[in-house]
Amino acid sequence: MWFLAAEFGAFVVFAGVWGVLSDATGRRTPYIAGGAGAGAVLYALIAWLPGAVSLSFVGVLALRVLQGGATIAAFSLAMTMLMDLGGGHGKNMGAAGIAIGSGTALGAPLGGQLYEIQTTLPLYVASTLSLVVAVAALLVTDRAPSDGRSGLAATVSGLKQRPTLGVPYAFGFIDRLTAGFFALVGTLYFRETFELGPGETGVMLALFFAPFALLQYPFGVLSDRIGRTAPIVVGSVLYGLTVVGVGQAPTVAIAGAGMVLTGVIGALMAPATMALVSDLAVETERGTAMAGFNIFGSVGFLAGILVGGTVAGAFGYPVAFLVAGGTEVVLAVLALPGLLRLEKPTEDAVGG
């Protein structure tokens, strides 16, 4: 629990720093390459140092915090680079969703298999992949707006004047809460309730992330055409109900089917939520706006780990799934009036 929490706590602290710095300097790629490169080194150190110098778990957590602070620069600003592109925010955020979902869909089963070979092997693989990202980032054209950009204080002040960003931020929070919930509680649920091994548990998680990744691009394009409200609200209600259903599944086959359905519904709402951030942010504040979205998302992930773990330990898995899914449904209902006021229903409105 604390190993996961350390990384996402660092996401919360550092996402805004990198976003504001990127907007103020009008650059993205140096921070992406630097963050990914530093993350590669720190992933390797987390794997190697404990055995080499008998590093305590507190020391491992300290390295994990540094790794999280570096990784979020690459993660958040890479998403911001997609915001800098034209052609429709829903489509661009759908591309981001494919990348994020595909990585997790591959990481869940691959991580489980690598873990069974050698405990620290997933960390070394993560280090190698982060290094590839660092090199690749240097080959990409940096399209960050540079004309008339504001300074740090002006950028932060500008976002304070856009409280409407709180709507997609709130959905980012609750969506990532369920992700954090599945990362800890879902993993333990599948292993203890259905007696699955690490590799099999990874496959169960992949049943969610595979459709979640593959369908985000077409659903992102759909949100450019029909607007953001329907995918976000309808998707959130159905998503929450499906999460509750997974926790009540009597067999592993039914739970697996529920994970697939959850992935499909999640793919409907995720790109629309991220695209709404793009819709509301002015071009010189995109890095800060996306950083805010990732901060709320990271806090949500932490809440999913801590609250989900606490509720599951005190009241059992079915109640924990009910709390996670029910919270998603309640938020969708409460946020509907705000979403209707923000709606931009046509492709021309959101694509420009």
TrEMBL record:
It comes from the Archaea. Residues 164-352 form the Major facilitator superfamily (MFS) profile domain. This is Sugar transporter. GO terms for cellular component: plasma membrane. The chain crosses the membrane at residues 6-24, 31-49, 61-82, 94-115, 121-140, 202-222, 229-247, 253-277, 289-309, 315-336. One of its GO terms (molecular function) is transmembrane transporter activity. PROSITE patterns: MFS. PANTHER family: TRANSPORTER MFS SUPERFAMILY (PTHR23521:SF2). The keyword Kinase does not apply. Keywords: Membrane, Sugar transport, Transmembrane, Transmembrane helix, Transport. The lineage of its organism: Archaea, Methanobacteriati, Methanobacteriota, Stenosarchaea group, Halobacteria. Pfam families: MFS_1.
